[in-house]
Amino acid sequence: MTFEVWLRLSAFLWVLLLCALFERRMPRRSWRFPKRSRWLTNLTLTLLNTVLARLTLGAFAITAAIWAGDQDIGLFNQVAAPQWLILLTGVVVLDAAVWLQHRVTHRVPLLWRLHRVHHTDPELDVTTALRFHPVEIGLSLLWKALVVILLGLTPAAVILFELLLSISAIFTHANLRLPAGLDRRLRWLICTPDMHRIHHSVYQPETDSNYGFFLSIWDRAFGSYRHQPADGVEQMRLGLLEFTEPRELTLGHLLLQPLKNIKRINDNGPFEKPDRPVS
Question: What's the pLDDT tens digit per position in 15-49?
């Protein structure tokens, strides 16, 4: 467990630092909002989530993998398989599970109340990848643990996926300019910043697309992929129109936000009608 904690923490900090430096040197979009207040809120929320997770569920998915192995529960604890296959299957299936969870949070009103904390950020950079409500973090840990147990994944497979997920989440949220050719090629396998930014558009049909954090194949396979934002990368608006007041974006208000039954503003921009009823 100690090794897992230090491995994930060191990888997280290095990727966060590198992406922050690169987005400062070659930003994809001009900065529209003060970074100091946003970073303070997002990083404080991250610290709170980390402490709460460690005090409650902790490394729950890894604990689930160890328990499933001890109890001989799950697919790979019942059939012999090479380690490379377990690792590959673990990464692909867990990524599909996270993609499905993400899509469901946009469809179920109660889960959307939790998830919209992530979408209320009016800007997008490396710290947005860390902006989640603590309850959503807890539900995500439980969901991943269930998948781990059903598959009978090894702790190594879980650690590998968690590393890839945290690295890719920071990368896809970075305000980073990639060469057009590189972005186009990467999109066939993984999500890029330009691809995921569309998901944070104020237009609901764009928000309900490009759900992936790591692999891009799920959005292509299930018809939720969008190539470009309607207003263009530089001009597109980010966030949620019902949460634009500065005080609504402070830490205390974000923690209490799921308790507020606020109807989503139906702004479909150039789209004729919403893809689904607005909750």
Answer: 999 999 999 999 999 988 888 889 999 999 999 98
Q: What is the pLDDT of residue 52?
A: 84
Q: What are the residues whose beta carbons fall under 8 Å from the beta carbon of 212, sequence distance 6 or more? A: 95, 99, 102, 172, 191, 195, 196, 218, 219
Using CA atoms, how far apart are residues 92 and 46, in angstroms rounded to an integer?
26
In whole angstroms, give the CA distance from residue 107 to residue 118.
Answer: 15
Q: For the chain, how many residues are written?
A: 279
Helix/strand/coil percentages in the chain, nearest 5: 65, 0, 35
- Measured in whole angstroms, how far is the alpha carbon of residue 203 from the centre of its chain? 19
Q: How wide is the angle at C-alpha 60 spanned by C-alphas 152 and 72, nearest 5°?
A: 25
Q: Amino acid identity of 115?
A: H
